[in-house]
């Protein structure tokens, strides 16, 4: 992890520093020549007033990122709110079925049941192109700040906690100040006449009955009528209003936080701010006053920033996402060498000349970081497979085509160029024209 911590005297200076860090991070990721997203993010446990995440789109990513194809809107799903999702008019269509999602508060006193539609009025399940909506747990977290999203089995945990607690209270004649409660909230697509405060998802199994025994009459129903579902591709953009939302999985590569004085206050990390220096006609008077009056100590807390890039996870993410069946495909700035020069045994001498041509600086030519595979105990086929596995951005082959026609065969896998014939005299121009794209 590459970390950067910043300390400024004022919020204005801290904002400038934060923007400098963001600009530097953008330049860094631009150099990688890989797709990435910069999104507004939740500061989470670290806290602070402002943060941005830098994500690499990949199907194996653990974060869900929303972006708009019509504007610059991009945000982590944790912060996304559907436009007009609150106060929506409740549906009047009868539902064949619905499903429940459960959550539990951190103190284990509140069990939350969120109900969403499962089917249609005719009793048929929703067609594949209209999948049943999936609950947005981050929206529930805003409605119930005490919600603990890390509990895998909220109902079982709730029942187990209060069964044990009630048994302990009976034997020790003690009583907890906490009261077990059940709170229900319904998606706006559940019609009013289908709402049943005692439904428990329509299930009346032993676990449901035990929940009712624990909570007694302490069951409430939220009067909110809103969209509780997660964003789907093609949903309405909160910024521009177009139905062009794209949903992608991504892995976080970097994060920038503006922390303000959250940590400096708790650590008493402060400084004495120098008095402002007057200018103009009042300067002489002020100097006389300063000779007779003690300097006023203006104590202030540092405005902090915290920034980091996950180097090791970035390497793993790029390798995993850009790899093919043949091997790796490193971006130019991450590859062990920018180019590999391979040759049959009879062309090793010519390959050395090609290396000199590319790897040594000349007028109008910046030296290429190239490696010459001059192993004599391996055939060209073996060398080609090794080059594919390692993932060199550019592979230059001096094989049978060079022996017969005097041309090299150049491959640039990330650009789809495979064994293209290039004369040695044109090699610099061809490589140089494609270098900035990889």
- The number of strands is 19
First-last Cα distance: 25 Å
Tell me what portion of residues adopts beta-strand conformation.
Answer: 25-35%
- Taken from the alpha-carbon principal axes, the silhouette is elongated
Element-by-element helix/strand order: EHEEEEEEHEHEHEEHEHEEHEHEHEHEEH
**Total of DSSP H or I helical runs spanning 4+ residues:** 11
- The parts where pLDDT drops under 50 for at least 5 residues are 120-129, 279-296
Specify the helix fraction band. 25-40%
Alpha-carbon Rg, integer: 32 Å
> How many strands, which pairing sense, and closed or not: the largest β-sheet?
7 strands, antiparallel
3D structure, described in words:
The protein is of the alpha+beta class and 438 residues long. It contains 11 helices and 19 strands. Strands 1, 2, 3, 4, 5, 11 and 14 form a 7-stranded antiparallel beta sheet that branches. Helix 3 packs across helix 4. It is elongated.
Topology:
Blueprint: E1 2-8, H1 11-32, E2 37-40, E3 50-57, E4 63-68, E5 74-76, E6 98-105, E7 110-117, H2 137-143, E8 147-148, H3 154-172, E9 181-186, H4 206-215, E10 219-221, E11 245-260, H5 262-266, E12 270-273, H6 282-292, E13 298-301, E14 303-309, H7 311-322, E15 339-343, H8 348-359, E16 370-373, H9 380-390, E17 394-398, H10 400-405, E18 407-412, E19 417-423, H11 427-435
Helix pairs in contact: 3-4
